[in-house]
Amino acid sequence: MELAAAGLFRARWTNQIHDEWIRNVLKSRPDLTGEQLERTRSNMNRAVMGCLVDGYQSLIDAVTLPDADDRHVLAAAIHCSADAIITANLKHFPKTELAKYDIEAQHPDEFLHHQFGLDQASMIIAAQRVRKRLKNLPKTAEEYLETLEAQHLPQTVSKLRPYVAVL
Asked: Could you give the number of structural domains in the chain?
């Protein structure tokens, strides 16, 4: 989010994608409320200008994916001419299907690693900002990197580790 809000890439999503992540977070995090996550949805939409994609719905039935419930993601990506779908769920977005639309699926770690190569300073600044916003459960820079590793971002952590003193 920090990188998208800074304009380093154009993040796009739909209300259907929001509904899906909110539903999944509520299942795995009973300590959070729908109201809190709706506030997050609103903040995300405000932080990234032009992020919401609409008008993709007619494409959903025209695309094929292993999990039919993911077709809306590909349909939205096609509609807004996205280059990539950033997801940890790569098996649901096979290269052969996405290649038909000149779209690739990237794991978040691969995407962030690539962003680091494009603009190292912005990645470091973004990591600083995110860590400093952790007020309820503040973390040292090392703890922050451990959290990123636990979130399956080892390549990103390897790029950030040399800068731990400034994080």
From this structure: 2
At residue 148, does pLDDT exceed 90?
yes
Q: Are 58 and 82 in contact (CB under 8 A)?
A: no
Same domain, yes or no: 100 and 121? no
- Give the pLDDT band (50/70/90) at residue 135: confident
Helices 15-28 & 71-79 angle (0-180, nearest 10): 140
Tokens of 105: 């699926």
The answer to whether 22 touches 38, Cβ cutoff 8 Å, is yes
pTM: 0.91
Same domain, 70 and 52: yes
Residue 40, Cβ neighbours under 10 Å: how many?
16
